[in-house]
Amino acid sequence: QVQLQQSGAELVKPGSSVKISCKASGYTFTSYDMHWIKQQPGNGLEWIGWIYPGNGNTKYNQKFNGKATLTADKSSSTAYMQLSSLTSEDSAVYFCARFEGYYLYYFDYWGQGVMVTVSS
Amino acid sequence: DVLMTQTPVSLPVSLGGQVSISCRSSQSLVHSDGNTYLHWYLQKPGQSPQLLIYRVSNRFSGVPDRFSGSGSGTDFTLKISRVEPEDLGVYYCLQSTHFPWTFGGGTKLELK
Q: Which residues of A touch B (CB under 8 A)?
């Protein structure tokens, strides 16, 4: 069965960076885009961008250009998102989600989410 | 960016009742390929969102027929009939027609 297992919660200092992971299993990792979504406490959902692990191509929400960097390791079927120059506005839960293309265009499987807390 | 406006924000319901949630977009969600990429998700407390309806009116695998979606263009509706306890949570619409993809603000379905 498809599973996306994300790394654990992070407490990080303002101005620093953090890298969170999303390990995929149960499907061919290189055949599906992996997307990342942000959810601030009490707020809705915000799309960050995607990576296609097959060739490393990425696309970002312009709002997250320079903030988020998406990478993927085919050998371990793991996607990563690095967030840089962290501020309190980056405190949120971050989800990875598998994307189903081919004229469907939805997220069918999600990770459990990683809570990132930015605090001194 | 396409603004997705969901109403109501909060929706009290009695078990066994029927409710409707509205999602309106600031521009048409008809893609150049002719499809409309409007989807509905439910996020239960402490969980990740789960897909209910894709492309306006198609139920995802395992979703009961108590859930139905309709609409076109900029105006969409999710209906839930015979509400059960496991239906409680926050419902979101998502448009994946225009970049950047955007979600509605959410509708919290709760017991009266």
A: 44-47, 59, 61-63, 95, 97, 103-108, 110-113
